[in-house]
Amino acid sequence: MKLRDMPRDLLVMTLTMIVANITGNMFFPFEALYLGSLGATIQDIGVFFTLQTVMSILFRVGGGWVSDNLGRLQTIAVGSLFGLVAYLGYTLAADWRWAMIGAVFGAAGSALVAPSFQAFTAESAPEGAVGSTFGLVEGLFLTCQIIGPIMGGLLVEYYGYTVMMWVATGIFVIATVMRLWIARGRRFVLGDLRQSHLGRDLKALVGIIIAGGLVTWLFVVDGLRDASAQLMMPFLPDYVTRLGGQSESVYGLLFSGMTVVTVLAMVPGGMLADRHGEHWGIALGGGISSISLMVMIFWPTTAGFAVAFALFGIAGALVSPAFSSLLSKAVPRGSLGMTYGLFWSALGIVAIPSPYLGGLLYEGVAPQAPMWISAVVIALTVPIALWRLRRPSTGEVQAVLSVDQGEPAPLQD
Asked: Which of 13, 171, 211, 224 is the most buried (most CB within 10 A)?
């Protein structure tokens, strides 16, 4: 799919996602350092990220279900209001423990917005071009990761964390207003959210995940990847800045450079998934991710970090559209929001201990220890992806549809 072929509603909503997530990418690369400035130790940071993961798990299933029943755009608007409270919570926090208020509302907002936008993208994609649609949308979306880290790094280095957080909050206000404007006039009835439907839909989707088919293996592969990422990512800022000798602005540039690579490779990554099968994108991305971690371990210099982050960018461009495309083909479209929410919640359960264990390894063994373990585990996903993550046939999709007991609630957008 080309930009001129993108449906108008999808294009406009993608623009709001970019604006909103510029702020997230101003803050996210420096979140661990910000918590440290509020008095958190390395182990405190591990505990904070672990609790953050738990909250995301608790909220995501409900967020996806709300999206399926209330409507994609309406749910995104409500999620933005939660996100605004989250930014205020982080910005006004006087201690790292108070920042947990921001984490709670941030998890709730993300639980509403993320599965809604994923499902909205899948439903807007033309037949036979799901992978390339995700590639284009995610490529456009990732421009926020070019702008955000540079802005965040410069603001932190020259003005401090407080100024950076207030600027991020102000930009997020703009995104919230845009989303509320887009959702205006659409049906918004809380009575559409029926508890009986939640129990029915949840039971059906849990059955799909544990049935031993394609969705089960998607869960296994992405669970291993997610657990590995959570093992080392919270401590990457400290590794690159303190141990690697890089400044905060250089760290921001590394993230932005990684995103430039991802944006350039995202559409080709989606085309690879459409033409040759999603399993190839997921497998190749896993192999490249493992290599990038090895580069970071053995070449901890500015040049080495640049190469490693560029490889990370290529890997993300291969895996992300392939995974989103394959999952959207494996479940009923009327339950896509809850599927994404439940899937990410289940993955989060797998990753709960990872930040805490990563902190113990980082301090107690060696700063490279979490990276070593992550590289090995991610490498193990390559043969699994090639063996098990094949595109479902029409008969397999019909079998999945038959699991759903009753019709999914109609969308209101």
From this structure: 13
